[in-house]
Write a structure and sequence with these properties.
The protein is built from eleven helices and nine strands. It is of the alpha/beta class. Helix 3 runs parallel beside helix 5. It is globular, with a radius of gyration of 20 Å. The site of one magnesium ion has 4 residues, from loops.
């Protein structure tokens, strides 16, 4: 766009912005009705240990829009967060995850699997979050030890004592906590020290270039030893290649999630994949 066309350019962007806003408002409305009409569902991405053995899964939310098809979580989670709808959606996700865990409970092979659920900062900070979650745990009759909640560094905007207290209430039941997308937000070592976390999830943006970029390689190695020395489990996200896996293992990482092992799957496909034994390159070790 030419410089001497400044006014038209402005008008163009103004119109674009209005379109984007209208589109987001429409999606927000669609989301509210879509949650009631069954357009949302969960998929399950396996998490594996050093032997490629599946130890659990992360539940990820999907939205099948009647006209637009599958909408990316990057789009709808963002809209849900900015509109406050995330609290309702997040609770629904937690409810579904508990139903799934309840279903696994009777099967000896499945009852030891953990299920991780993403909890957004806004959802976590709301005064109803802990009581609602406690009520859900009580009514769904699951083994609380099997449920893992993933928090991101965006929760750190609030008072650390208050966050720790909420976490403790749920941990008393056996619920575990992971710090998701570790390294991408406002991490402070003070938070790592003062929050009762169980696991760090190294963000996929660091894992992606771990072979080509020596800076990322150093960061990842440091994250693994930091987690280890703080007594936390460390899981690497977004593992796509055997070379990345080998690097991570050589630096002491023991838990993995990524396309190398499996993409997020329907529950049926996830359960079928368990019957096939060790997954990905881990099987050859
Ligand atoms: P996340 O929690 O960090 O989840 C991991 C994302 O990485 C997922 O994207 C997953 O499909 C993707 N992924 C897994 N392995 C690989 C890999 O090897 N390579 C690459 N390139 N990507 C991989 P997805 O499902 O699109 O979700 C994106 C984000 O949306 C999630 O990131 C999470 O922050 C958010 N999200 C999804 N479901 C929920 C939910 O129920 N509640 C909340 N609050 N957030 C959710
Ligand atoms: Mg996550
Ligand atoms: Mg993540
Ligand atoms: Mg992520």
């Amino acid at each position: 766009l030419a410089k001497n066309d400044g006014r038209n350019t402005y008008r163009f962007f103004d119109q674009e912005l209005k379109n984007v806003m209208a589109e987001r408002a429409a999606l927000e409305q669609d989301m509210r009705t879509g949650l009631d009409t069954g357009e949302f569902y969960l998929v399950y991405q396996p998490q594996v240990d050093l032997h490629g053995q599946v130890i659990g899964a992360e539940a990820l939310c999907r939205w099948q829009h009647p006209q637009k098809g599958l909408v990316s979580p990057a789009v709808f989670i963002d809209i849900a967060e900015k509109s406050g709808f995330i609290r309702q959606l997040g609770h629904w996700v937690l409810e579904q995850a508990c139903k799934t865990l309840r279903g696994w409970r009777a099967d000896a092979r499945l009852s030891r699997l953990s299920l991780a659920v993403n909890v957004s900062a806004q959802q976590f900070h709301h005064p109803d979050f802990v009581p609602q979650t406690l009520a859900l745990m009580a009514s769904s009759a699951i083994d609380a030890e099997r449920l893992e909640l993933e928090l991101t560094e965006s929760i750190f905007a609030q008072d650390v004592e208050q966050i720790a207290e909420k976490m403790q209430t749920l941990k008393a039941l056996g619920v575990c906590f992971s710090l998701d997308d570790f390294g991408t937000g406002y991490s402070s070592l003070n938070y790592l020290k003062r929050l009762p976390l169980d696991q760090l999830k190294i963000d996929q943006s660091f894992v992606r270039d771990v072979i080509a970029d020596s800076f990322d390689a150093s960061i990842v190695a440091a994250m693994i030893s930091l987690g280890e020395s703080l007594g936390l489990k460390v899981l690497a996200e977004g593992v796509e290649t055997p070379e990345q896996l080998e690097f991570l293992r050589s630096r002491g990482c023991r838990l993995f999630q990524g396309y190398l092992f499996a993409k997020p799957l329907s529950e049926a496909d996830f359960l079928a994949s368990l019957r096939q034994g060790p997954a990905g390159a881990g099987a050859q070790a």
